[in-house]
């Protein structure tokens, strides 16, 4: 499957409020390991599950292998194997021919909204929507695996 | 997916030599984690790959979730993520309506042959072929995840 190149941004919440949004998808996700060299993530959405293995980030690039699994398996894996979990609602927004995934976090991460864009190379150019603010691609605090352990509401 | 109930035996090598065997399948397998509470195994055979998550054993029973993945993914996962690896050839032998999986280990585990039988309950009765010897279901040394780290040829 191979490599994922992704950049991550905080949001201008006032501008984001004005955006007309499609229905969001609820994600429950947890980590079987949060080791950054081999993160193993389980995600349960409304109707399917995903098992994902990610490697160490080098710049904005990371090895990623993702497999669709039955939802019942995903829930059992979360219940039996996950070290830590988070919940969020994802909105998919098209802007200038690129897909943005905007994650509105819940629970202990309530108040945090993060937008991600997947690129085909580290140097690919793209347009920024008005609701996009500061880039946090390289800030490890925003790794979802870290947000399960050190949630946003505990930050100073 | 759920539970795997499995019993494991050593072999009488002299009797095993006499058995007419089908073609064996070569397995390369490694572990992303060898934590016995959540073992994550990647297996590459001649033409497909498997990703398997196993929980802690309780008696002969263990939670197990197994997914077929592309062979190229399995090889990349082994190359990039596995902590430790082993190689073996597996023979599938039918005996009295039950399937036995006989693993002939290679490399640092050369000399070890182990037979496994999957059961539908811990108390299920079954016939033992002549080539089956001592049971080692509960001997952790024979866990494949342990054989990658403490191979048979290093045992005293």
Automatic annotation (TrEMBL), chains A, B:
Domain (CYTH): residue spans on this chain: 2-149
InterPro entries recorded for this chain?
Answer: CYTH-like_dom_sf, CYTH_domain, NeuTTM/CthTTM-like
For this protein, the record's SMART domains field holds: CYTH
Pfam families from the xrefs? CYTH
Matches recorded under Gene3D superfamilies: Hypothetical Protein Pfu-838710-001
List, alphabetically, the PANTHER family matched.
SLR0698 PROTEIN
| Official protein name in the record | CYTH domain-containing protein
Question: Species name for this entry?
Answer: Pedobacter endophyticus
């Amino acid at each position: 499957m191979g490599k994922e190149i992704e950049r991550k941004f905080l949001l201008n919440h006032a501008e984001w409020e004005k955006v007309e949004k499609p229905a969001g998808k609820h994600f429950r996700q947890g980590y079987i390991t949060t080791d950054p060299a081999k993160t193993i993530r389980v995600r349960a959405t409304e109707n399917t599950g995903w098992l994902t293995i990610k490697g160490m980030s080098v710049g904005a690039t990371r090895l990623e292998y993702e497999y669709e699994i039955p939802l019942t398996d995903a829930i059992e894996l979360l219940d039996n194997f996950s070290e830590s979990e988070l919940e969020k609602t994802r909105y998919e927004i098209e802007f200038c021919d690129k897909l943005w995934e905007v994650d509105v976090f819940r629970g202990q991460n309530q108040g945090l909204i993060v937008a991600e864009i997947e690129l085909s190379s580290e140097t690919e150019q793209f347009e920024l929507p008005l609701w996009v603010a500061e880039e946090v691609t390289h800030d490890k605090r925003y790794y979802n695996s870290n947000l399960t352990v050190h949630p946003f509401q505990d930050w100073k």
